[in-house]
């Protein structure tokens, strides 16, 4: 199937509400359901992945901590960070989880390069980095051959909350944003470029646009 539904959610989204919708979609989909990509920004939240350990939560303060069923450990989501969720039937596409991880990382590297910045993935620490600082995080879940959860790319956000945790389980991991290493980057521009790159790499030839989750 070469069609995909692209949802660009307006405003800042509550993590629990989006997560619940993501699970409803995944539970209800069948072999005829289009894949979906969701683009959004979250209200401030720490999410603890399945491998998460309490000692990586240092001083979370007034930001809520929510348990998530994605892979990985703790991370932060907030305004100015582009989150993309991937609801893809990998089995139908004939690909595995490694293909999806590689595709996401390569797409991020390509888009970041368009802003004059060199970035790279690390084989031992999923995500994308610039000068040893993390600019994008990955956390996926595959169930019955279908993916959900996704990526978070720091574009123009307050990085202070990352100091309240050990990001992705690494004490003292330095974080950065695209606007720290490039000039005047708009989140809408990054979103459009990343969508174009993902459609190409995932071989979607048509897509349908939606702006909310009301039909899920």
List the helices and strands and how they pair.
Elements: E1 3-13, H1 15-28, E2 35-42, E3 45-48, E4 65-67, E5 74-77, E6 81-87, H2 90-93, H3 97-114, E7 120-121, E8 128-130, E9 133-143, E10 146-154, H4 178-181, H5 187-201, E11 206-210
Parallel strand pairs: 1-2, 1-11, 3-4
Antiparallel strand pairs: 2-6, 3-5, 6-10, 7-8, 8-9, 9-10
Helix pairs in contact: 3-5
Structural commentary:
- With about 220 residues, the chain is an alpha/beta fold.
- It has a single domain (about 5-210), classed as Bira Bifunctional Protein, Domain 2 (BirA Bifunctional Protein, domain 2), CATH 3.30.930.
- The chain is about 25% helix and about 30% strand.
- The protein has five helices and eleven strands.
- The strands form two sheets. Strands 7-8-9-10-6-2-1-11 form an eight-stranded mixed sheet, with helices on both faces.
- A hairpin with a 2-residue loop joins strand 9 (about 135-145) and strand 10.
- The mean pLDDT is about 95.
């Amino acid at each position: 199937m070469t069609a995909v539904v692209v949802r660009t959610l307006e405003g800042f989204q509550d993590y629990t509400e989006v997560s619940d919708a993501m699970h409803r979609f995944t539970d209800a989909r069948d072999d005829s359901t289009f894949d979906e990509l969701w683009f959004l920004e979250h209200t401030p939240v720490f999410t603890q992945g399945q491998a998460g350990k309490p000692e990586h939560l240092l001083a979370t303060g007034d930001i809520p901590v929510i348990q998530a069923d994605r892979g990985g450990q703790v991370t932060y989501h907030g305004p100015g960070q582009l989150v993309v969720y991937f609801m893809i039937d990998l089995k139908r596409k004939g690909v595995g989880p490694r293909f999806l991880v590689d595709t996401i990382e390569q797409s991020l590297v390509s888009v970041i390069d368009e802003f004059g910045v060199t970035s790279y993935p690390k084989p031992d620490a999923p995500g994308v980095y610039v000068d040893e600082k993390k600019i994008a995080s990955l956390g996926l879940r595959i169930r019955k051959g279908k993916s959900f959860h996704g990526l978070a790319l720091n574009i123009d956000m307050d990085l202070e909350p990352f100091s309240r945790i050990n990001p992705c389980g690494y004490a003292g991991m330095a974080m950065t944003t695209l606007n720290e290493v490039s000039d005047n980057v708009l989140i809408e521009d990054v979103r459009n470029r990343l969508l174009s790159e993902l459609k190409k790499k995932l071989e979607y030839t048509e897509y349908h646009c939606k702006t909310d989750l009301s039909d899920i």
